[in-house]
Amino acid sequence: MHEGSRSDAVLDKAEILAQALPYIRQFHGKTLVIKYGGNAMTDPALQQDFAEDVVLLKLVGMNPVVVHGGGPQIEAALKRLGKEGRFIQGMRVTDAETMEVVEWVLAGEVQQDIVGLINQAGGKAVGLTGRDGGLIRAKKLKMLDHKDPSVEHDVGQVGEIVAIDSSVVKALQDDAFIPVVSPIGFGVDNESYNINADVVASRLATELQAEKLLLLTNIPGVLDKAGQLLPTLTAAQIDALIEDGTISGGMLPKLAGAIDAAKAGVNAVHIVDGRVPHAMLLEILTDQAYGTMIRG
Asked: What is the pTM of this model?
């Protein structure tokens, strides 16, 4: 590398750091809830990038809270046990035995992997489930049939959130820790419930009155009919895109939670392409769009 191009590269780096300053100032002391999933969660290089991003955000004065899923890992564990997964309307039927597997995969293996990666990158992560500090109170999810709402399907120990008590998360944040939350709730009889991680992230962001909710996915963001990225959207625009069928499938529950959070006071919800190295950092600290931002 000759002298000219080296100094250009240094100037580029300085420019990027200078560009981050107003964002660091704007979000200092603010809470960011991050739903961690997709490729970012299964590709070792992206896992390391994610952990470094979380630590950097904490060190510059923001308060990241991580909520994770673990569908592929649960699937792999059930296969090892020779247990066949059964789904109704896209929802995993969670009997008592499956729930046991869900708990040890999410609250054990997956959570502790994330905690370890963040600690290795220089942060102080602490793993929580919805049981810790009475964080997520839940009840059995009532699933009505898409075609005939008078029919209710029993999907077992799949839960919906009754209430969130975020005091344990706030206490950890104030103490320089990074909370890592597994989406498991508890019921009135101390039973466990498996809850959709996007829903937990959205509700937790609302409860904490977070500045931002970031949902890491395996797609560039919300796309229009022609497949072009829509960098910003309002709740009304999303309703129109659902109405005309542009948004469908797995994107629907993600966006339902995102809209609820945006309407309930979370300043911005970002659907971020987790396949791009350091996408989360670039989304928060630069002008560059690496996904779709939804405003309330």
From this structure: 0.92
User: What's the Cα-to-Cα distance from 27 to each of 32, 33, 258, rounded to whole Å?
Assistant: 9, 13, 20
Read off φ and ψ for residue 163, nearest 5 degrees: -155, 155
Can you tell me the distance from the alpha carbon of 190 to that of 142, in angstroms, rounded to the nearest whole number? 19
Q: CB–CB of 245/187 below 8 Å?
A: no
Any idea which residue has 């247990």 for tokens?
Answer: 83
What is the DSSP annotation of 269-282? EEEEETTSTTHHHH
Task: State residue 248 phi and psi, 5-degree precision.
Answer: -155, 180
Neighbouring residues of 49: CB distance < 8 A, sequence distance ≥ 6: 40, 277, 278
Question: Tokens 């509700």 belong to which residue?
Answer: 203
pLDDT bin (cut points 50, 70, 90) of residue 1 is: low
Eight-state DSSP code of residue 62: -
Length of the chain: 296
Strand partners, 294: 233, 269
pLDDT, one tens digit per residue, over 246-285 is 887 767 777 888 888 888 889 999 999 889 999 899 889 8
* Per-chain mean pLDDT for the chain: 90
CA distance 199 to 191: 19
Q: What is the DSSP letter of 229?
A: B
Burial of 43 (0-12, 13-18, 19+ CB in 10 A): middle
